[in-house]
Amino acid sequence: MKLNVRHTIDCPPDRFWSLYFDPDFTRRLHLEGLGSMSVDIISQDGSPDAGFERTMRYGQRPDAPGPVRKLFGDEFVSTEVGSFDPAAGVWSFVLTPGTMADKTTITGRMQLTDNGDGTSEQDFTLEAKVKIIGVGGIVEKFIERQARDSQNKAAAFVNANLA
Q: Which DSSP string corresponds to 74-122?
């Protein structure tokens, strides 16, 4: 499964990245904007200008179909390990679920392009492969729906909190 989502962000890329990598903003984004039940920034190092790495874990209670809920439980805990390449302006990450990690591969990237008018075009890509006989496709469709919903909420939250 491959997903691509685009949004207009109401600020230039440098402003977006400074917010996106701010620990307080990250916590607010997850808890208030995305409805996460928990968020823990395990480590982060660097800056948007020099390169940035972050590892965080968060838990969500999404509306999942029965087979997905049976496999993963009521709370989906995931660990995101990512790095930012300032020369390319790309955030790349690997998302590892707390359950069935050996059967699930999720990678993604996000890039912003300056529109030249104080806004940016955000391009988010996610690829997921779930190797569980009988339900892999169902889980992949759930991941796609969840990621699309999360990106829509995240873009709205960022745009509403730029002041």
A: SSEEEEEEEEEETTTTEEEEEEEESSSGGGEEEEEEEEEEE-SSS-EEE
DSSP-derived secondary structure letter, 50: T
What was the pLDDT predicted at 138? 86
Give the residues across from 98 on adjacent strands. none
Distance CA 134, CA 90 (A): 35
Residue 62 has pLDDT above 80, yes or no: no
C-alpha span between 128 and 144 (Å, rounded): 8
Q: What is the CA radius of gyration of the chain?
A: 16
pLDDT at 139: 86
- Where do the domains of the chain lie? 2-160
Report domain 2-160's class: alpha beta
How many Å apart are CA 59 and CA 79, to the nearest integer? Answer: 9
Of 66, 98, 62, the residue nearest 80 (C-alpha): 98
Task: Please give the Cα distance from 125 to 55 (Å, whole number).
Answer: 19
pTM over 0.85: yes
